[in-house]
Amino acid sequence: MRQALPKIQWRRSRRARRLKLALCPWRGIELVLPPGVSEAQGQAFLDSRRDWMEAAWGRIRRKVPEAFQENAPESLLLAAIGRRYDLQYRPLGDRLEQRGNVLLVPGPATQSNARCRIKPWLIAQGREILPQWVARVGERTGLAHQRVQVRDQRTRWGSCSARGTISLNFRILFHEARVVDYLILHELCHTRHMNHGPQFRALVARFEPQWQSLDRQLSQAAGGVPGWIGW
Ligand SMILES: [Zn+2]
C-alpha cells in the first residue's frame, strides 16, 4: 500500500552541494536543489527515493504522533469583538501572518501546532484591545486604575492588585462583549473594595444591574474558550 506523503516543497539553495531531502514532522518534506540541477533531475531524484520517503515518513509518524493529530481548528471566533478568522496552515511558513480575516498559521494542521502558534497572537490582540476597553469602562464609571496587564492565567479571568494594576486573561476575548464589560467593571470596583462584600456588590450593581447573571456566565467553566486553546 502506498502511504500518503505530505506535499513536497521545493527549494533552491546556493549553498547546497547535492540534491537533498529534508523530512520534518512539523514542516513536512522539503527537496533542496543545488545550483545547476534541473527540475527534471529533481523529479527523477524524488521518484528514485519514493520508497525510502514512505518508510521514513511512516517512522516519523510513529515517533512524533503529536504532529499528526487531526481536527485542527479551521476558524477562530473572538466573540468579544465579533470577529471570525479563518485558519489556513502553511507547512513551511515561519511566522503567523494575518491577512484580513485569514490567519496563515505556519506548521502542520494539528491542534497542538494551532495552540502554540495562535496563543501568542491572541495575547498580542488582547494587549491591543483590552487596555482601551478598561479605559472606556473607567471613564464611564469614574473608577480609576493604574495599568492593565494581559496574560495567560491558568485559573482566573482577571484580578486587581492593591496598587490598581488590572490583570486580564487573554481568554476573555472568547466571551461576549457584555461579559467582558462586566469583568472589567468587576475588577475596577476592586480598586475601591478589595473584597466581595456588600459595599463591593452595591458598587457593581450601580453600574450593571444584571451583574449576577453576567457573573454566572463568566464562571461557567470554559466560557466559549475552544478546547484546543485550553487552560
Ligand atoms: Zn473579584
TrEMBL record:
Signal peptide: none
UniProt-recorded Gene Ontology molecular function terms: hydrolase activity
Alphabetically ordered keywords of this record: Hydrolase
Any one Pfam family match given in the protein's UniProt record, by short name: YgjP-like
Domain YgjP-like metallopeptidase as annotated: residue spans: 18-220
The protein's name: Metal-dependent hydrolase
Organism: Natronospira proteinivora
